[in-house]
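Predict structure. Chain length: 118.
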Amino acid sequence: MNITNWLLLIVVVLFGTTANVSLKYGLQISSPTKGGSTSILNLVLSRYFVIWFICYTFMTILWLYVLQTVPLSQAFPVLGLMYAFIPIASHYLLKEQVAFSQWLGISVIITGVVLVVN
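Prediction complete.
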C-alpha cells in the first residue's frame, strides 16, 4: 500500500471521528436541559449536525475510492482506528472520562491495526 492510500485511509478515519464527536456535541447542546429530551429540529438545524453530514459524505466518497485501490483485507482494519480516536477526541474535546482500562484498549487497537496492516 502506497503513502497516498495510507493518507486517504487516515483522512477517512479522521472524518469519521470528527463526524461522531460533532454529532455527540450537537446532541448535548440541542438538549434544553441535562435531563430533558433532545429536540430533533434543534439538532438538525445545528452546525454540528451539518459538520456530521459533511464529514460522513466525504468519508463515504473517500472510502469508495480507497476500496477501488486497496485490498479490503488491508483497508478495513484501518477503520478500527476510529474505535481508538473517538474516545481520545471525546476525552479532550467533550471532557468525557476515559478509564485506564480504556486507555489500554486504545493502545491494543492501535497496535493491532499496525500489525494487521503491515
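Summary: Residues 56 and 105 are 25 Å apart (CA to CA).
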